[in-house]
Amino acid sequence: MAGKKPLTKSQIISYVAQKFDLSKKLAGSIIDEMATLAVTETKKAGAFTFPGIGKLVLVKRKARVGRNPATGEAINIPAKTVVKMRVAKACKDAIVPPKK
Prior knowledge:
The chain is an alpha+beta fold. It has two domains: 37 residues, no CATH class; 55 residues, IHF-like DNA-binding proteins (HU Protein, Chain A, Irregular). Helix content is 40%, strand content 28%. The protein has three helices and five strands. The strands form two sheets. The protein has a three-stranded antiparallel β-sheet. It has a two-stranded antiparallel ribbon with strand order 3-4. Helix 1 packs across helix 2. It is elongated. The two termini are 23 Å apart.
């Protein structure tokens, strides 16, 4: 498994084009539009759900005190907003089956 590389964007576009009998240009436009929609909706609403895959969510992190790993000195880490992907349970279970 370690030797297999993830699909590139052009390979994904080719797959979608072949699967749904579309031109590569149209398949590329659809994929680009999905990505744009995910970004704009996450910015606007704070979350975007990819059905069957997961959910992009904005998470507000509080300010905290951390340590500089080089010196061990305490430093203040400011509050910030980050984007996280919460993987859907069905997707997670399909990829890595739960232990019984």
